[in-house]
Amino acid sequence: MFTPSTIPYITQFYPLGNTPAVSLTRGLPQGVDADILLLGCGDVRNILFTAYSERGFPPRKLDITCCDTETAIIARNVLLFTFLIDGIGADKAWDIYFNLRINKDLKKLIKDQAQKIVSLSNSIDQWNEERYGSVLRFCDAGSLQQVRQVWIQYTSPQKGEPALEEDLERARKLERTLSGQPEKKPPLILTGLRSTAPLSLAPKLVYKQDVIEAREMFWKRGNFSRSPETIPNPIFSETLSPHTYLHYGTDPTLGFHLATALANLAPASPLRPNKDEDEMLNVIRAAKTQFREWIAAFQEIPESRISLRFTVSDALSLCHGLQTVSTSENRSTNLFRRQLDVTSIEFDPTSYAGADSAPTQFDVIDTSNLADHIGTLNLLVAATPLLKTMASSTLWTETLLKSEKTRKQQFDTLLRGHEPTLSLLLGLSPVDFWTNATSVSCVDELVMNAMFSSPGRQQAHSRLAWKLDRSFSQQPKGSVALSLEPHALAKAVFQIYMELFANEDPTTLLKVDREELAENIRNRAYPLFHRGSFATLMKHVRSNTSTDWPSFWEQLLQLIDQDGENTTTLRSLYRQDLGAQLHLQGLYTEQWLRDGAGPKSRMGGFNAWKHIPEVVCVTVVVPRQQVDNLYSTDLSKMNAPTLEGVLKSSDPFGWQNLFASVHVVFGQVETRSNREADDFSIAIHQDPLGWQGNSPLVASFYVPSGALQVEPRDTKVGLGIQNTAMNITTFKHLLPTMAIYMTTLSDTSNVFITKYEPGMSGYPFRDTQDAHEARGSGVQSNEPTTTQITANFEDDKIKSLCGHVDFSSSQKGKKLLTDRASIELRQSSPFSIDIVFGKKALICPVSFPAPVLQETAKTRVARTSGYIEIIAPLADPLTSEPLSSFIYPITLEGSVPIPLNSQQVNLDSLPILDVDEAHKKDNNWLNILTAHQFSVRERKLREWDLPSLRMNFKESLFTMFMLASGVQGGNTGLFALQHPKDGNQILIFIRAIRLNGAEGSVVADAAALPLTRQLIDSGELETFLYVIRELEICAVTVNDEELVLWKKVLPAFAERCRTWTHGPNCEYKRAGATIPLSTQMGKQFMCSCGNGVLPDNFMRLPEWDDVASKHAVRVAISPTFSVPFVEDIVDTDLLEKQGGIENLEVDKCRNCNATEGKDGGKLLKCSRCKDVMYCSYDCQRKDWKKHRMECTPYDAS
After folding, report:
1. Whether the predicted model's global pTM rises above the 0.85 cut
2. Is the N or the C terminus of the chain less surrounded, counting Cβ atoms within 10 Å?
3. d(CA 611, CA 592)
4. Considering only CA atoms, which of 649, 659, 748, 746 is closest in space to residue 699?
5. Rg (CA), the chain
6. Is 375 in contact with 362 (CB distance < 8 Å)?
7. pLDDT digits (tens, 9 = 90+) for 201-259
């Protein structure tokens, strides 16, 4: 398997999601068909919310593949979808899907439905041809049959109320143990407040208590009914057992956007909870209101426009399996689908063959929070080859667990190395890292997280978007692979190797203080990588880069062997495992492996084979008693041991080798053929009872065959537990060997040597290739050509890139070089530097896979040889000027606008905030939210009066949200972006402030009206412009630089909420078009396709409907936050000093956010309006250009 193996005595059942729903198509252009892969899919919330978010958008076909390792998750999801296809009502669907306890009628309904789908699923062919097969498909027959067994349980549930309560009490006890709470005191779980964002910033706890009470009610009553039912719901209860606990955080409300339960919503707002409903808590009203709308939207989708595919599998196994079928005709992968399961992944040939086959490349890959459990690096390596090579294609990773003190520190550990270096080697771009800008707020999360006192109980929810670097940087097709010097690459990879396996060096724990020690032990409890993981990583790096690979491997292995001489670490014990894994994955076969085993028939067994491969599989049968002995204490039942195969000398002081890539399953071994025959193999008859049965544990792992001939009969072989601090503490009785079971090679009853793993017909990975189009090594052209991009390392990190441009095939370029024409470098984008000859006699763009700096770049000009090299340092997302306006980049792919960093929003479906004067104080959370657009660093710069382009842009956004909401100053939705010399350039009309729960933020539903010179000269707007001069319009002063930035971001803001289609005459479809179309003063910068496409009565202004609206386009304007993985957003130290979230509402200086005057005294009020406060006259003066348009005289009456 692809991560270290564990056999948990207790597994936790996660039937319901614990993060607010997101739209799966949020990063895709509207109206374009989408293939989506959900890894660790969990419940149905994201699929249903996607359907709701697509309402009113140009139609598209959705093909969604859902993968989860838990069979019962897939079983209950498919059951619900069959109900929805049959037209069941949302209220019944809620009770079936969310309630632990139900009534007799619902129990019969579930039983009847389960019996129906059981009768339709005798085979995958039957299922595909019957009622639900046109929409609901299974990727493989094995998944269908495993799910079918769960449905059969639903037809005759065995569990009564006492048994269900016993199961729930086990889960409660586990939570009390983990939290350290007394038995009679219920645990306080605040993660539900995440779902109230951005209203968790509202200091008043009105309705917040509902969130906590909802969870308590669910766990006590099993539902939210006023007259609770008592019959266990089989889609929960039949999965629970002494080995499978309902996760203690399970709460039906967490997947919804609960801000609607707390906010003051406008009377006509979508998703406004009906307070007349007979619900006990407002959050339940809110959740059910949303669920009804989501269900209705899903049922409106024509069956021809949606396909949902399901598979029961480990996420990494599925990804590598899809890589296999996408690059070969073989539907068999030789990969186990998951631990404790003997079946392999074998895709349905009727679905994964032919022109109409199921997708194996995807527009979107969502990985839930699997990164916490199997490692971000493992996920990226497995899933990246499945991404389509398009600018819109995105791989989403998500983390919940807090492993470091700050988000920035946590980001540094995600990839186990220098992030720019790793991402370049992987061929990926972390979008958020390079833009350091997002409309997604984590302010609520960070503030609420700071309220926890115990570091071990904290969570830090974050999502990251990854794109292929060639797509994100818009490199031309056929661009060259990144070239690397082998010695420098070997040193850099060695540092990655050391970081991946730092847990194998116990001495590092001796170098930290007690607090760090506890944190390190927690973080190292479950290692995420083994040598197979490393080999898989390097296979991906090889497919994406170019170097002298034999030289690289020689130098890397030399460094690893030198480290192996350090006897204080355990890394040398895995050296043979490394060699075996590199060979298995076709990367490198060392000479000692080639010279390994040879036929020795007199020794018997595999030694008599005519051809002994370099690597063979060892299978050990571990008696059940040895496994049961592991779990003799409560602590051992909670902490799953990490397993590894063991080979060691019969001499107690002799050699030992460990192998961490192990597959285990409960069952009985059946041999096939003769042990001395080359075709000898074994199969395992899996025990369907698993933990609740009595079968032994069968463990398999690959080893170098030569290692088995050192002591052909007496070599000890077995299964052990990895030496981690947690394992040593938990399983003390296994010290000093940490062996679960050991026997010898001569034990033919319990040890089996085969070529391949049990039940497999070949090695894994053999058919896996890079699924993406091969990068070129340079293309033939008559134009100057970038023939090589080389990475330059400093301190084992990539610090600069060198672009080599060959002019030998360009007659014009060669002549300019030999004529000694002047050469200048100009930065045309963060990823591109132009070589400019003379007065633009020739312009040659050089594209890089990551943002670079032209300002400090160096050149090598070889006029005789005919080439130029640009050595450009990597940009810094905090300080590099080329990235200052790289906030919401948008590009054209073909003629389709693709926003690269702005998420799609369906404005008409979002709740509307009531901004009436009566709610001004209640809405002050909006002040806290938008003020946190400024990072801790930027707030200091504000205090020092050192503005930047981004800060000016955020200031303008802050002004708009404060005035449009009426939280500060007056209340107006009319704004003009005003240039100091050239006057008003763009008018912005904010119709409403809407809650955007998926982003934990708000969005301004607005229209932008660019005042182009052509429009002004036409005189068409003359009357309208005269009218609005008389109205309360706020002039937002913008300089040249900020005006250009607005022209860059407004097209992205228009695209993200687009309900219209780009027509055949779209300006973006013209030859040579760019986005924006132009940044020159008075020129058109957006296409006109969306002009006038606005809801009725969008603005109630004279001349609006007949004149102005025809030239306005709808835009979704969001607060723009820095990215917490790049810099700190919330000053937690200051928050602690202030005493918590309630004090975030204290009066602050409008200009610099100071909470007291410059002299240490009180803040000063504006003498005119008496509403806005300043710390000094200096700050008041600086803010006057914005405040003067909102400042109205104080009415003492």
Report:
1. yes
2. C
3. 17
4. 659
5. 31
6. no
7. 786 554 567 888 888 899 999 998 877 789 999 999 999 999 999 998 899 999 999 99
